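Collaborator request, handled under Task 6.
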Amino acid sequence: MNTSAELAPLKWLAVAGLAAAPWGEEVIAIPAGVAMGLSPWQAGAVALPANLLPALAICAMFGRIRFLSRWDLPRPGRSRRAVHLFRKHGAPGLAFLAPLATGVYLATLAALLLGVPPRAWLLWLTASLTAWALTAAAVTHAGGTLLRFL
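Structure tokens returned to the collaborator:
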């Protein structure tokens, strides 16, 4: 019979995969990790770098595919939302709203196409994802504590 300790690496891998997926963000992956039996802080520690990894890859590849910067951004709803957030709030606002509004993939691509330097973008995105991971872990922990008292 498998014990919880034997399954922990699989749970961490599931949380990392969910956080790194385009449709999954750390605000989804952390509660999912808690539902699998991880602590909110363990789930956050796994989800944060997993959610940041795709942005690092996009920034690293962007120099090689710079020809994309000549094109306008596509106009589906989420892309338009990313451009609107950038024009209204700048790179910091886009980075902090990305996990909820557009997702990390699209926000990173939009920021780079709109001329934000990759290092500056990664700095803002790291701060944003750290804040969201701490918030999601704290809210999940508080919710779990509240449910134990009910």
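The cover message to the collaborator said: "The chain has six helices and no strands. The CA atoms of residues 20 and 111 lie 19 Å apart. Please let us know whether this matches your experimental observations."
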